[in-house]
Amino acid sequence: MFDKLVEQKIREAMSAGEFEGLEGEGRPIDLEAYFATPEELRAGFAVLKNAGVAPEEVQLLQEIDALKRELERCRDDAARAVLEKRIHDKSLSFRLLMDRRRQK
Question: Nearest Cα to 33, choosing from 94, 103, 97, 102?
């Protein structure tokens, strides 16, 4: 019953155009970071994020996402190279941090 109500509300919102113009519209969702986060930490991180308190992992993911958006808009080759390096470095930091968390 609840599932049908939720689906109905989503359809109504879609019909009203409430999902149009959202950030990331038309782009695939990148769930790599979500699945890289240990399952036992995901719910806690979500609570912290909603409270405006971001752990280091979340902060890194936000920075990576912002850099990727900037890279999409960038047309200068030299600037793109710098952005790509920063994305690589932040992604590496994130993966190393997550590896350390898994080993604990």
Answer: 94
Distance CA 30, CA 94 (A): 15
What DSSP string runs through 25-74? Answer: TTSPP--HHHHHS-HHHHHHHHHHHHTT---HHHHHHHHHHHHHHHHHH-
Who's near 48: CB < 8 A, 6+ residues apart? 54, 55, 58
- Provide the whole-model pTM: 0.54
Compute the distance between CA of residue 76 and CA of residue 55 in angstroms, rounded to an integer. Answer: 33
Coil vs helix vs strand at 98? helix
Predicted confidence at residue 91, as pLDDT, reads 95
Residue with tokens 């308190």: 53
pLDDT, mean of each 10-residue run, the chain (104 residues) = 85 87 79 80 82 83 92 95 97 92 79
**Whole-number Å distance between alpha carbons of 37 and 94:** 10
